[in-house]
Design brief:
8 strands, binds phosphoenolpyruvate, TIM Barrel, eight-stranded parallel beta barrel, alpha/beta, 15% strand
Length: 253
């Protein structure tokens, strides 16, 4: 059984002032524990605030929600992997469904971002997941497999410390609909087998997180499902009280 990873994606919530208040409340209620890893993905402007607040906590990592694939240059509004790392990021999210579906991010761009993260020695969490139309058309397995293979196409020599995977069905994100533990397990098992084919036994160590309307009530059931190694939580992670409950959920390690 792997060490669970509980990740909070604040999306465009919690600027630096709110981030400081959140971290003070969260860390006061969440004493150091060695049986899980917490990752907080704040908006980029709050990254340093979160990183500083978590600096004495090896079990709590700051992450960044997005990077550009270039190291620097004329890309107004973007930040690079080395810059995010310099600001305190220990993980980067790549290919979140809102990046793909609101901002048109493609698998080819995700692959370039994975490569950029890897070059900066910044572990990345690649997100894959199907829309409701793709699900109803029976395309889920082919789609997530392709997103995984395309996303990693430029980083074939991954080791487990470089990479996490998140299965986030688009129809479940921010909708209140959640995949059942059985459905989530089926896709996680497929992704695990793909990873195994791609990188052999190194693929067995990669944490695969589930995301999509996880909350304090459904977190425990999902976390005990086979091949679900953690949770990526959006809306229910924005308030410290709700996140405190979710972060402490689940199976003892
Ligand atoms: C997310 O942003 O990754 C997410 C899963 O959002 P929510 O929990 O709000 O569905």
């Amino acid at each position: 059984m792997k060490h669970p990873v509980l990740a909070a994606n604040w999306k465009m919530n919690n600027g630096p002032t709110a981030a400081k208040t959140f971290m003070d409340t969260f860390l006061a209620g969440y004493p150091l524990r060695g049986d899980r890893t917490i990752i907080i993905f704040p908006p980029a402007v709050s990254l340093t605030t979160v990183a500083i607040a978590a600096s004495s906590r090896p079990d709590v990592l700051a992450g960044v929600q997005n990077i550009h694939w270039a190291e620097k240059g004329a890309f107004t509004g973007e930040i690079s992997a080395p810059m995010a790392k310099d600001a305190g990021a220990r993980v980067v999210l790549v290919g979140h469904s809102e990046r793909r579906h609101v901002f048109g991010e493609t698998d080819a761009q995700c692959a370039k971002k994975c490569l950029a993260a890897s070059r900066a020695k910044l572990p990345f969490m690649l997100c894959v997941g199907e829309t409701i139309e793709q699900r109803e058309a029976g395309e889920t397995k082919a789609l997530v497999t392709q997103q995984l293979r395309d996303g990693l196409s430029q980083t074939p020599n991954l080791i487990s410390a470089d990479f996490l995977l998140a299965y986030e069905p688009v129809w479940a994100i921010g909708t209140g609909l959640t995949a059942s533990a059985v459905d989530a397990s089926a896709i996680h098992t497929l992704l695990r087998s793909e990873l195994h084919q791609m990188i052999g036994t190194r693929g067995d160590e990669i944490p695969i997180l589930y995301g999509g309307s996880v909350n304090a009530t459904n977190a425990a059931g999902l976390l005990t499902a086979p091949e679900v190694d953690g949770l990526l939580v959006g809306g229910a992670s924005v308030e410290a009280s709700s996140w405190l409950t979710i972060a402490q959920t689940g199976r003892p390690h």
